[in-house]
Amino acid sequence: MKRLLIRLAWFAGSLLLASLLIFAATNWLPGDIASVLLGTNATPEAVAAKRVELGLDRPFLVRYLEWLGGVVSGDFGTSMINGRSVTATIAPRLEVSLWLVLFGTLGSLLLALPVGTFAAVRRRHLDGFVVSALSQIGLAVPAFWAGIWLVVLFAVRLQWLPAGGYVPYWESPAQWALHLILPVTALSIVQASVISRYVRTAVIDVLHTDYFRTARAIGWGKVGALWRHGLRNISISLLTVVGLQVATLLVGAIIIEQVFALPGLGSRLLLAVTQRDLVVVQGIVLVLVWAVLLINFLVDVAYQMLDPRLKREAT
Amino acid sequence: MKRSSLWAGAALVGFVVLVAIVGFFWTPFSPTSNGPTPLAAPGWPHLLGTDAFGTDVLSRLMAGAKVVLLVGVLSVLGAAVVGVPLGMAAAMLPRWAGEIPARLADILYGFPALLLAILFAAALGGSTWTAVMAIGIATVPAFVRVARAATLQVVSQPFVEAAELAGVSRFVIAGRHVWPNIAPLVWVQASVSFGIAILSEAGLSYLGLGSGPDAPTWGRMLREAQDHLFSTPILALWPGLAVAIATLGFNLLGDGLRDVLDPRLRERP
Questions:
Q1: pLDDT tens sequence across B70-122
Q2: What residues in chain B have their Cβ under 8 A from chain A's Cβ atoms?
Q3: Per residue in B119-139, pLDDT tens?
């Protein structure tokens, strides 16, 4: 219990520090955002008036605390460009990013578990070697390049699936699924090659354990023994990897949104960057970074709860 | 099989470096100026064809190799120079002080290179330097972790204890006893980080957050190729292939180095 509280304190601290870093990066680096927004021809008086309008004339710490206070109560401020509430801008886009990351994680696990296990069990044979060589190549391929080729193959040549765009689930579940297949596949293929390498190592470790040898000796088949005794051990070490990969997946999703013209957080973020809309930028980046930190925290806690060996030490 | 990944990786990396060096001094055509034959198929004189502006694709690829290696070298070197001493300090300082760099590294892990680059690009405008800075900062935690874990192993060895008892200062121990022992792992991490840096740079320039419009980067070429997927999909082949070859090379080199330099990590048969 004490250990959990310490973890919780670190987690809260890291959320706070991350928010400070984001706010500092967008508020200190640019020099003077007011003159950037008004262009080079603005008079000094107009710039000064804009600074007051944006609240930039007040001390950094005051503005940070005000922003953070707003964020905690669900108010991310108002856009510098169109004056709309940032919360209202972000909320409808969360859904798209969420589906991408969720299905990307599931898809990569569904691919990586059998592939990694196969590569481990058959590691002394040619086919096992070929599979791990392929995963090595998959590591080197950018997800958005895979996405581009999926478009060329399934949208341009075969015309089975749409090349891009998004339809919300409540409008048409079938269209929603069709539009998500290619982007999720692009994310999953690349992600799976990372995870399958960890699966391979974990399975090889299990193959060398005493309990696996005993299970084989009492008559279990290789696959049966792995399923019955290996999976739980493998899944525990895999949990950490999947947690760490969520950050990569979120970033991959930003680029994939661009490839498939999906209206998620990433495309809104890039629009805000070109518009120099710093309030929107810091709002979306904060949501993404906090999501990564939260997932890593949850994985950490789950790790200690799932692994009975750690649980005994903790209490 | 033995050391095959080392040699394959070294060959691929050597090839990319060679192309970058040649591209620095000479390209078949100008990599930036437009030509008279847009969207030409691969052939002669344009070996890999031309893009929508008639620019020679091979020349652009060669010029792009230079940018990729520049960003990779600067960001990985910078990250190692900052991260390795921090990691060593985290392992050698008293526990309460050592926790700080380790925890900071954990938090920085939540900031992938792309998000940092987006923050910098929003504040400063995208450029090669914001890309280097973003990728560099995002790479620091990896070096902190590797250096910390390796140093913890070394400082528990008797020869370090002996040096401590002999009154050797912490700095001398770090430089003379710890560094030579952790250096192999740092090289491995550098190679792996280089591969990741190449992927990140490609992603950044694909999104238009990296080098300026006149710099021919592989990511930018992919972005431009996407407008012509219906007519000339082959344009999307070459830059992606270049990214994959360069990344694969550094990944294999890292794996190979690990096998050679650190026998303890060698995979069981």
A1: 999 999 999 999 999 999 988 888 777 777 877 788 777 767 888 888 888 87
A2: 1, 103, 106-107, 109-116, 118-124, 195, 199, 202-203, 206-209, 222, 225-226, 229-230, 233, 236, 240, 243-245, 247-248, 251-252, 267-269
A3: 888 777 778 888 899 999 999
Of the options 2.40.50.140, 3.20.20.70, 1.20.1340.10, 1.10.3720.10, the CATH number for the domain spanning A86-314: 1.10.3720.10
CA A200 – CA A266 distance, rounded (Å): 32
- Assign 3-class secondary structure to chain A: CHHHHHHHHHHHHHHHHHHHHHHHHHHHCCCCHHHHHHCCCCCHHHHHHHHHHHCCCCCHHHHHHHHHHHHHCCCCCECCCCCCEHHHHHHHHHHHHHHHHHHHHHHHHHHHHHHHHHHHHCCCCHHHHHHHHHHHHHHHCCHHHHHHHHHHHHHHHCCCCCCCCCCCCCCCHHHHHHHHHHHHHHHHHHHHHHHHHHHHHHHHHHHCCHHHHHHHHCCCCHHHHHHHHHHHHHHHHHHHHHHHHHHHHHHHHHHHHHHCCCCCHHHHHHHHHHHCCHHHHHHHHHHHHHHHHHHHHHHHHHHHHHCHHHHHHHC
The domain total for chain B is 1
Task: Please check whether residue B106 lies inside any domain of the structure.
Answer: yes
CB-CB under 8 Å, A270 with B244? no
Paired tokens of A306: 């799932």
* Per-domain boundaries in chain A: 86-314
The answer to whether residues B235 and B149 touch, using CB atoms and an 8 Å cutoff, is no
**A positions 55-94 inside 8 Å of B (CB):** none
**A136 to chain B, closest Cα gap in Å:** 7
Give residue B118's Cα distance to chain centre. 18
- Do the domain assignments include residue B190? yes
- Tens-place pLDDT, residues A230-255: 777 788 878 888 888 888 888 889 99
Say if B31 falls within a structural domain: no
Range of the domain at B255: 4-26+58-261
Chain A residue with minimum CA distance to B245: A140
Print pLDDT tens along chain B (269 aa): 457 888 999 999 999 999 999 988 888 888 877 777 777 778 778 777 787 777 888 888 898 898 899 999 999 999 999 999 999 988 888 777 777 877 788 777 767 888 888 888 877 777 888 889 999 999 999 999 899 888 988 888 888 888 888 888 888 888 888 898 888 889 989 998 999 999 999 998 888 887 777 778 898 888 888 888 888 888 889 999 999 999 999 999 988 888 887 655 554 44
Minimum distance, in Å, between the CA of residue A120 and any CA atom of chain B: 11
Provide the CATH number for the domain around residue B86.
1.10.3720.10
| Burial track B125-161 (b if 16+ CB lie within 10 A, e otherwise) | ebbbebbbbbbbbbbbbbbbbbbbebbbebbeeeebe
Q: B110, A137: Cβ pair inside 8 Å? A: no
Does residue B180 form part of some domain?
yes
